[in-house]
Specification:
- The strands form 3 sheets. Strands 2-1-5-4-3 form a 5-stranded antiparallel β-sheet. A 5-stranded mixed β-sheet has the order 7-9-10-12-11, covered by helices on one side.
- With about 450 residues, the protein is an alpha+beta fold.
- The protein is built from 13 helices and 12 strands.
- It has 4 domains: about 110 residues, no CATH class; about 100 residues, PAS domain (Beta-Lactamase, 2-Layer Sandwich), CATH 3.30.450.20; about 80 residues, Signal transduction histidine kinase, dimerisation/phosphotransfer (DHp) domain (Helix Hairpins), CATH 1.10.287; about 160 residues, Heat Shock Protein 90, CATH 3.30.565.
């Protein structure tokens, strides 16, 4: 029901002219008083009725417009009240307009969803920056590159603070042209990126002013370094065993040709040198493969406790009387994690402890869940692996260099079962890829402890 005041005002507007005419006729005595009053009463009733119809239809039309503005399908439902012809025409025109707008809105929604799907599935990392240079969006490739679960954050903060990228973004906005720059990000692992800052004018629907397209060139640079390092390392480390093999072969062909005892002894040494060369090449190739993927965080999760027990059982034949003692819960998940690479970390650290510990000694391995903080540990939840031996220990000045390729402590720690000198370098690069931390603790005469912190829920 329309408000009474609005109803009376509308009726007065509609009936003003007929009432004025009847009043003039009454004053000029063109009609009788009784006829004029009846006519004026009839005009008033018709004006009230017409005003009521008009206001009811306008109210209904207004409600339909408000519902349509709220994305309701109000125009698909008919009016429940009688309609004036003019209002019906307006309602039909608005119905067609609303349906057209709904169709266009649905089309725009589909196009926007398609655009978002294309951006999300682009192979290159892509960021959308707001007016204040903060990240509004990051596609799947960018989230994987920077270890993001959703939105922006994590390692992305280091990228946005990089002076080269900040300069490219400012130039792009000032000159309204795309700007490119090369970036080197040293943490958490070294990355080589090429960034293209593209200004958006007008801004995107979410307020994005700059689109940053990244090309990760870390792998290409790593391949170049790998080739140079492999040639340098192989030529340096293979020289000694190759010289030994050549010398023994020449001896067997010459003076020891008919000496069965010497031949047997030399062949054993040659087999040892050949095995050393094989292990060296395998470790060099393994290290090169790890360095190629070090800038890419792993995917999935791994039960480190189960993996530790399996590696300890596999190494029992090499223990030679040394006991491996494990303290770990039934299950402990690291995430994100590469199972094969974490198995290599455990194997290398256990072999290192067996090699450098006492004969028939004890190697302790433990796994604990840490909630964050503590000496030299990241301030977030994770898993702490600790493997200790009872060997002669490591002088403090050597500890910072233990993860270098082929670095060996001058004073021998082991029992003459030397490795390739690459085991700890492999461990370091795998831990870096997992966004973890390697800590080495040792005092001369008190053994050594190797701790690995890994992210985990």
């Amino acid at each position: 029901m329309p408000p009474l005041g609005r109803l009376l005002r509308t009726a007065l507007i509609l009936g003003a002219v007929p009432l004025l005419v009847q009043l003039v006729l009454l004053l000029t005595e063109e009609v009788s008083t009784r006829s004029a009053i009846l006519a004026m009463l009839a005009v008033s009733l018709m004006a009230l009725g017409l005003a009521w119809f008009w206001l009811v239809n306008m109210a209904r039309l207004s409600a339909a417009l408000q519902a349509a503005a709220a994305d309701d399908d109000a125009f698909s439902r008919p009016f429940r009240t009688p309609r004036l012809p003019a209002v019906a025409d307006i309602e039909e025109a608005l119905t067609r307009l609303a349906r057209s707008l709904q169709a266009r809105s649905a089309l725009v929604g589909r196009l926007r969803a398609a655009d978002e799907a294309i951006v999300e599935n682009l192979p290159d990392p892509l960021l959308v920056l707001a007016e204040d240079r903060s990240a509004l969006r990051a596609n799947r490739a960018a989230r994987q590159l920077f270890g993001l679960k959703s939105g922006a954050g994590g390692d992305l903060a280091a990228l946005l603070r990089h002076p080269a990228l900040s300069g490219a973004v400012e130039r792009a906005l000032a000159e309204q042209t795309a700007q490119g720059t090369d970036l080197h990000l040293p943490v958490p692992v070294a990355r080589e990126l090429h960034a293209q800052a593209i200004p958006m004018n007008p801004p995107l629907a979410d307020g994005g002013r700059v689109v940053v397209v990244l090309s990760d060139r870390s792998q290409m640079r790593a391949v170049e370094r790998m080739r140079a390092d492999f040639v340098a390392n192989a030529s340096h480390e293979l020289r000694t065993p190759l010289a030994s093999l050549i010398g023994f072969i020449e001896t067997l062909r010459g003076p020891a040709q008919d000496d069965a005892e010497a031949r047997e002894r030399f062949l054993g040494i040659m087999a040892t040198q050949g095995e050393r060369m094989r292990m060296l090449i395998d470790d060099l190739l393994s290290l090169s493969r790890i360095e190629l993927s070090e800038h890419q965080p792993p995917q999935g999760e791994t039960d480190v406790a189960e993996l530790l027990r399996a590696e300890a059982v596999a190494l029992e034949p090499l223990a030679k009387g040394t006991r491996i003692e494990i303290a770990a819960p039934p299950s402990l998940l690291a995430s994100p994690a590469d199972t094969e690479q974490l198995a290599q970390v455990l194997r290398n650290l256990l072999e290192n402890a067996l090699r450098h510990g006492k004969t028939e000694g004890l190697v302790r391995a433990s796994l604990t869940r840490v909630t964050g903080g503590g000496p030299r540990l990241p301030n977030r939840p994770g898993i702490l692996l600790a493997i200790s031996d009872d060997g002669p220990g490591i002088p403090r000045e050597h500890i910072p260099r233990l993860t270098e390729r082929f670095y060996r402590v001058e004073q021998g720690r082991g029992r003459g079962t030397g490795g390739t000198g690459l085991g700890l370098a492999i461990v370091k690069h795998i831990v870096n890829r997992h966004r973890g931390q390697l800590i080495i603790e040792s005092e001369p005469g008190q053994g050594a402890t190797f701790k690995v912190w890994l992210p985990g829920d």
